[in-house]
Amino acid sequence: MQNILTLIAAPHNAVLTPKLTSAVRDALAMARGLVGPPDWLDPGIACDIPFDNVDVREAEKLTRAALRNAPVDVIALPTSPNRRKRALVADMESTIIRNEMLDELAYLAEIGEQVAEITRKAMNGELDFYEAIRERVSLLKGQPATLLDDAAKRIKLMPGAQALLATLKSHGVYCALVSGGFDYYTQPIAEQLGFDEQQANHMILENEAIAGIREPILGREAKLEALQRVARERGITVEDCITVGDGANDLAMLGAAGMGVAYHAKPKVQEQARINIRHGDLTALLYLQGYRADEIYGRG
Predict the structure, then answer these.
(1) What are the domain boundaries of the chain?
(2) Which EC class heads this enzyme's classification (predicted)?
(3) pTM given for the model
(4) pLDDT digits (tens, 9 = 90+) for 77-100
(5) CA-to-CA dists, residue 156 to 3, 81, 162, 252, angstroms
(6) In the CATH scheme, what is the code of domain 82-98+157-300?
(7) E strands within 215-284?
(8) Other C-beta atoms within 10 Å of 78: how many?
(9) Which H helix or E strand runs over 170?
(10) Would you say 112 and 103 are in contact if contact means Cβ atoms under 8 Å apart?
(11) What does each C-alpha distance from 138 to 131, 135, 199, 204, 210 come to in angstroms?
(12) CATH T-level fold of 1-79
């Protein structure tokens, strides 16, 4: 069939049942759709339903109504021969890790609320990213460099991050970590998880204190350029890539990739992104590509 509807629940809340998938199939059939049998990628967690004769946006709308607010992500996409992507380009903060590292630094410096509000507005597209990062770093100027290590101790990986990277790497997928944050944190996270490369901004330290940020600042355009470069260097196209992020500076790379995923994203990002994961963890990116439970590291 020409389209696939993928339903994904969080692994810790495996609420996806045959009863729910039957309700979804009935809803599509009532709209005069041709509906195939469910293909369970992971019982209780992820399922594919092939369908025809219903627009993908309408299929998503009908499915959400049939699910009756069940915490299940709904993604309908045209069937594609390159569903499994050959490269991942991922944002880091609030995506691969739970943290926003400038916020962590600010809380340690006791200016947390002030900096966090700037972060929130920048990630939701309410402030210019470049001016926002300069302002936040300027507020930290003069703080001891030891805060960088103290903040690193607070880092928590996003659920599913290790399984996502281990699974993709085992299938030969090239993985790039691109961040509007700082290489002080992207480098160790990239090494820990097995990313093939990382890029981020560089914080300037002078006299063992935070002094500024190196220009030019890497943001929205740099992330898009990284996606294009990774595809070019790997001899593939951006259609062969999957991207993931949560903030406004991720929108360009989300829109350009063959599969761009807004992950637990800011409201304005959710509005503009074609694919949203609101309930699942990062293994949702694997189910979206048709990976099955026995192919996922730590899940089978």
Answers:
(1) 1-79, 82-98+157-300
(2) hydrolase
(3) 0.97
(4) 999 999 999 999 999 999 999 999
(5) 36, 35, 12, 26
(6) 3.40.50.1000
(7) 241-245, 259-263, 275-277
(8) 10
(9) helix 161-170
(10) yes
(11) 10, 5, 22, 11, 9
(12) Alpha-Beta Plaits (3.30.70)
For 104, the token pair is 């962590």
- Give me 201's structure tokens: 């901004």
Q: How far apart are CA 152 and CA 263, in angstroms?
A: 22
Please check whether residue 73 is in contact with residue 7, taking contact to mean a CB–CB distance below 8 angstroms: yes
Joined together, the tokens standing for residue 218 give: 């890497």
Burial (CB < 10 A; 0-12, 13-18, 19+), residue 244, is: buried
Q: Cα separations (Å) of 240 from 52, 84, 225, 300?
A: 24, 8, 15, 26
Pairing of strands 241-245, 259-263: parallel
Question: What's the CA gap between 135 and 212, in Å, rounded?
Answer: 10
Cα angle 20, 22, 28 (rounded to 5 degrees) comes to 110
Residue pointed to by tokens 């890539």: 241
Using CB atoms within 10 A of its CB, is residue 31 exposed (0-12), middle (13-18) or buried (19+)? middle
User: Which H/E stretch holds residue 72?
Assistant: strand 72-78
